Automatic annotation (TrEMBL), chain A:
GO terms for molecular function: branched-chain amino acid transmembrane transporter activity. It is a multi-pass membrane protein. The keyword Transmembrane helix applies. PANTHER family: HIGH-AFFINITY BRANCHED-CHAIN AMINO ACID TRANSPORT SYSTEM PERMEASE, HIGH-AFFINITY BRANCHED-CHAIN AMINO ACID TRANSPORT SYSTEM PERMEASE PROTEIN LIVM. It is found in: Cell membrane. The keyword Isomerase does not apply. This is Branched-chain amino acid ABC transporter permease. It holds the Pfam family BPD_transp_2. One of its GO terms (cellular component) is plasma membrane. It comes from Sphaerisporangium rufum. The chain crosses the membrane at residues 30-51, 58-81, 87-109, 138-156, 184-207, 219-246, 266-288. Keywords: Cell membrane, Membrane, Transmembrane, Transmembrane helix. Its main location: membrane.
UniProtKB/TrEMBL annotation, chain B:
It comes from Sphaerisporangium rufum. GO terms for biological process: amino acid transport. Pfam families: BPD_transp_2. One of its GO terms (cellular component) is plasma membrane. The keyword RNA-binding does not apply. InterPro entries: ABC_transp_permease (IPR001851), BCAA_transport_permease (IPR052157). One of its GO terms (molecular function) is transmembrane transporter activity. This is Branched-chain amino acid ABC transporter permease. Belongs to the binding-protein-dependent transport system permease family. LivHM subfamily.
Length: 312, 294
């Protein structure tokens, strides 16, 4: 039981890292990419193929995985950013299915659905992390770093550019910043972060096959980001705790094994709808702050002049 | 060569099924601006309902399927999209809600029906020969019905008052509000048409592909891409793109193993999107404009 909880806890961390990548693309820049599982898959496959060659060096695998997924993300961005908004989702979904087909069909390299096993233990700074506990610790450290970095990214100029693109691409363009370039960067950055999740996944599980990286993983990552709160840096961790850790707890109920999977899917879907529905009733933090400031009577003159109109 | 023609025609006929889904989605997108992804669940729902009732009486099965399809589609509009649209006027939340409904729909169907494909029996599951070509009767019938539905939809949009109302709303939502047009009615009819078109699609999907809870997913993704490739506002473009995908899917088997089928279709889609990001419909327009200016 304790072992099970430890595994779930570690998987939560891995999915949080993968979802943090999608949070950059979807949450900050507002680009609905349904191809995020591709980058997780590339990270995992690079690790499975390269890991044994380099003795499981985590750094080499991570850098190679990030490099490969950045290259693939550029292809995605080049083709798919030619269509706008919701259509990008269709194009990225097409891309996802195309790459899934390659994962399954390119048997000589990926071993398709049979999968690749025998991935070595990760090696970091000369020490081999051979126990699940040390790996779990490593994963949570990486998750914390990723969350911290995305939070910093969000506050910096790049993050502000992303948010500006999400809110109003036309206004962003009139201010002399290219929305297309910004989206491009968001996709590439998101891909690099997500591939890191794939690397850690492959090391932790020790076995990967193509079925793990099809579009249902993309849907799961999207659910994590939306349920956790779009564009909130800690959102992926919260969403992952709900979607990866809490929802599978229904398997502890005495249900027939065939109903558990669909029931989980049902809950993801319901959570997405609920998250969207509830959002309409919760004003965003900015509006709340304005309202609070106005009520306190302490609204500063510049705030009155430039902020949104708030009636006291 | 003969095999290739055979496969291409098989794919073309299967494309009729994608056309039914694609024009439904295209009408909804144009009139309401909602990307109704949950339409894939409607297709699965129709296929499963029909397969479950087919043994009793075929007319009863068709009627119940129509009822179920309309109920699901209209409930999606009235109970999900409208309340959300009331609070959040931007399109992204609606899109996410539709995405959620798609997942919920697929999961619920898996819980209610078994995951095993059910193939309803029919005497039409035999071939008819045209020279060297062998064609399944059921596929020919499906294509004929799809073509008839397409034509009926075009006539409805072109000739009736409601059709012209829908075209007006599709042209400009704000302007139709200014003129006091009953926009809600146009939206409701759009969803209703899509729900009705899903009925023949679901019935033939049950015969041709078998009825299982995720049967609608691949047609949905094809239709989805066809709507984008066809170009915004072009039902004809969406239908043509859907047929093209059917042919590509059929021909792909000729050169590659069946596991590559979907991948090839979407590779073709991405390549065409590169050539013409606003859909194939604009390709001709641009040429015409260039010719005029020259």
């Amino acid at each position: 039981m304790l072992e099970y909880l430890a595994t779930v806890g570690t998987l939560t961390g891995i999915f949080a890292i993968a979802a943090a990548g999608l949070n950059i693309t979807l949450g900050y820049a507002g680009v609905f990419s349904a191809a995020q599982a591709v980058f997780v898959g590339i990270g995992a496959y690079v690790t499975a193929l390269l890991g044994p060659q380099v003795g499981g060096s985590l750094i080499i695998c991570a850098v190679a995985a990030a490099g490969c997924s950045v290259a693939v993300a550029m292809v995605l961005a080049l083709t798919s950013l030619r269509v706008s908004d919701e259509y990008f989702m269709v194009a990225s979904l097409a891309f996802q299915i195309m790459v899934s087909t390659v994962f399954t069909g390119w048997y000589s390299v990926t071993k398709g659905t049979d999968g690749i096993s025998g991935i070595p233990y990760p090696r970091l700074l000369g020490t081999e992390l051979s126990t699940p506990e040390t790996q779990s610790r490593l994963i949570w450290v990486v998750a914390a770093l990723v969350v911290a970095l995305t939070a910093v990214l969000r506050r910096g100029s790049v993050g502000r550019l992303f948010l500006a693109i999400r809110e109003d691409p036309v206004a962003t363009q009139t201010l002399g910043r290219s929305p297309t370039l910004g989206k491009y960067v968001a996709i590439v950055l998101g891909a690099a972060v997500s591939s890191l999740g794939g690397v850690l996944y492959a090391f932790y599980i020790g076995f990967i096959n193509s079925a793990a990286f099809d579009y249902s993983l993309s849907i799961q990552l999207t659910a994590i980001v939306i349920v956790g709160g779009i564009g909130w840096s800690l959102g992926p961790v919260v969403g992952s705790a709900i979607v990866v850790a809490a929802v599978p707890l229904i398997s502890l109920l005495d249900l027939p094994s065939t109903t558990v999977g669909p029931l989980e899917q049902l809950i993801y879907g319901a959570l997405i709808i609920a998250a969207v529905g509830v959002r309409g009733y919760i004003p965003s933090a900015v509006v709340l702050r304005e309202r609070w400031a106005a009520r306190a009577g302490g609204a500063r003159p510049w705030r009155r002049a430039h902020g949104p109109v708030v009636k006291p | 060569m003969h095999e290739l023609v055979q496969l291409a025609i098989g794919g073309f006929l299967l494309g009729g099924l994608y056309v039914l889904i694609a024009i439904g989605m295209s009408i909804i997108l144009n009139v309401t601006g909602i990307f109704h992804i949950a339409h894939g669940s409607t297709l699965s729902l129709c296929a499963l309902t029909f397969a479950a009732l087919e043994s009793t009486h075929i007319l009863l099965a068709v009627l119940v399927t129509t009822g179920v399809s309309l109920t699901f589609t209209m409930a999606g509009y009235e109970l999900l999209y409208r309340p959300i649209a009331k609070r959040q006027p931007t399109l992204f939340p609606l899109f996410l809600a539709s995405f959620g409904l798609w997942i919920v729909g697929g999961a619920a169907l898996t819980l209610i029906f078994s995951a095993e494909p059910v193939h309803p029996r029919t005497s039409l599951n035999s071939t008819v020969n045209f020279g060297d070509l062998y064609l399944l009767k059921i596929n020919l019938l499906a294509f004929a019905v799809a073509a008839a539905c397409y034509a009926a939809t075009r006539v409805f949009l072109a000739r009736t008052m409601t059709g012209s109302l829908m075209r007006a709303v599709a042209c400009s939502r704000d302007m139709s509000d200014v003129w006091g047009m009953p926009r809600r009615r146009a939206e409701r009819v759009a969803f209703m048409i899509a729900g009705l078109l899903a009925v023949p699609a679901g019935i033939f999907a049950a015969y041709v592909l078998g009825a299982y809870p995720t049967v609608g997913d691949t047609p949905l993704l094809f239709a989805f891409s066809a709507v984008v490739l066809g170009g915004l506002g072009s039902i004809r473009g969406a239908a043509a793109a859907a047929l093209l995908f059917g042919v590509v899917q059929g021909v792909a088997v000729w050169a590659l193993p069946a596991t590559w089928q979907d991948g090839v279709v979407f590779a073709v889609f991405l390549l065409l999107i590169l050539v013409s990001p606003r859909g194939l419909g604009t390709l001709g327009l641009r040429r015409r404009a260039e010719a005029r200016s020259a």
